[in-house]
Design goal:
7 strands, 12 helices, globular, binds magnesium ion, Rossmann fold, binds adenosine-5'-triphosphate
């Protein structure tokens, strides 16, 4: 462990059942999970950071997070302004961009996996990079080549599969990807490389559309890639290609409705009387339809009979969220007093619960 990294658990001991589920989920090597929704602002980054921290700090897992969003919110959240600034001020900061860049230069896969250790989250992090946006074009061009069976295109498309090979060699139990809100080339490469995906979503019509998009788009990409590989010159040169068609859906997390400006007090307590009735009715209707939408749109990615995909409902945690950001600390470990203590307790139970359900779904997926 790096100097300065603190491994402070939430203080809630694991139950025996949680230990068993964890041991089962981590058996058989490292698992890669991405958190994806092409709708923005649905709590992806907050979820991935807190879930990663929960797995690292409470379950004592070896966890790697990869910030693949050019906005770099995950990096800023977990490292803080000062440390981020320090790193980004270096002449050639080692980031996720350094992993993709050598491919753009025709030099093949990068030889290293650069990580930093955010002080209070317990996991390692491949930091984000705004220059990642520049690589969208390269990945998009090489995708055309990949579909036609070109080795260079396939190599670029599998850049994250190569990252996972390195992570596995370094014995990470879990590799979690935070992604920007798009169905662009970077996210395609991630979705074609990982074992599992989780969909964080708001309860609104946009998220329903997003679920439909994800299912259809990923299925098309997989078909196109498969056809590319079938005509490729030497697929054995690609990293671990047998992993490519195993993408499975682990579940979704809903964000509790928040009526903007009203209905939520400073500490996050929901005032049931405040939200406009019409909005609440629309919300209830959409909420009711989500399970059917999920099983209809994502049925080919999970066993509907075996998995309960609803991993949890994230309640609005009020000012605990900005406090967690300014302290660069998981929600469940925010230094707080007064009414925030109750809110923090809820965050502790919530993330433990989501982590346990996620681990259980890994064992049956
Ligand atoms: N449970 C919560 N309670 C209160 N605020 C929250 C909660 N979860 C997230 N937020 C806040 O909502 C905002 C959006 O969250 P977040 O950045 O996690 O979303 P995102 O889906 O990653 O966004 P983007 O699409 O831009 O990547 C942030 O300011 C975050 O602090
Ligand atoms: Mg984000």
């Amino acid at each position: 462990m790096a100097k300065g990294q603190r491994r402070t658990s939430s203080g809630i001991p694991l139950t025996d059942a949680e230990r068993v589920i964890f041991a089962e989920a981590k058996a058989g090597g490292s698992k890669a999970i991405c958190f994806f929704n092409n709708k923005g602002g649905v709590g992806k980054t907050t979820l991935v950071a807190n879930l990663g921290a929960q797995l690292a700090l409470d379950f004592n897992a070896k966890v790697l997070l990869v910030d693949c969003d050019p906005q770099c919110n995950l990096t800023q959240y977990t490292l803080g302004e000062e440390r981020s600034l320090e790193i980004y001020s270096e002449s050639d900061p080692k980031t996720v961009y350094s992993i993709i860049r050598p491919l753009a230069l025709g030099k093949g896969y990068s030889s290293e996996l650069p990580v930093v250790k955010p002080e209070k989250f317990g996991f390692d992090l491949v930091i984000g990079d705004p220059r990642l946006a520049l690589q969208e074009d390269l990945l998009a061009q090489d995708w055309r080549d990949a579909k036609a069976g070109g080795m260079r295109g396939l190599q670029t498309t599998y850049v994250f599969l190569d990252l996972l090979k390195k992570a596995s060699a370094q014995s990470y139990d879990f590799v979690l990807f935070d992604m920007g809100p798009s169905l662009g080339a970077i996210n395609r490469s991630i979705l074609l490389a990982v074992d599992f995906f989780v969909v964080p979503m708001a309860i609104d019509i946009f998220s329903i559309w997003a679920i439909r998009n994800i299912g259809q788009t990923v299925a098309i990409w997989q078909r196109e890639l498969k056809s590319g590989i079938s005509i490729a010159e030497d697929p054995s040169e690609l990293p671990d290609v047998e992993r490519r068609e195993q993408l499975k859906f682990l579940g979704y997390v809903t964000q509790q409705h928040k009526e903007r400006g009203a209905g939520v007090s400073k500490t996050g307590a929901i005032d049931e009387g405040a939200p406009a009735k019409k909005i609440v009715l629309a919300y209830q209707e959409i909420n009711k339809n989500i399970p059917a939408e999920i099983s209809k749109s994502l049925a080919s990615f999970y066993d509907v009979g075996k998995i309960d995909p609803h991993l949890g409902e994230i309640r609005h945690l009020g000012s605990l969220a900005p406090m967690s950001q300014s302290q660069n600390t998981p929600l469940f470990n925010v230094a707080a007093g007064g009414s925030y203590i109750q809110l923090r307790k809820q965050a502790r139970e919530l993330y433990r619960d989501i982590a346990t359900k996620l681990l259980r779904n890994i064992t049956v997926a």
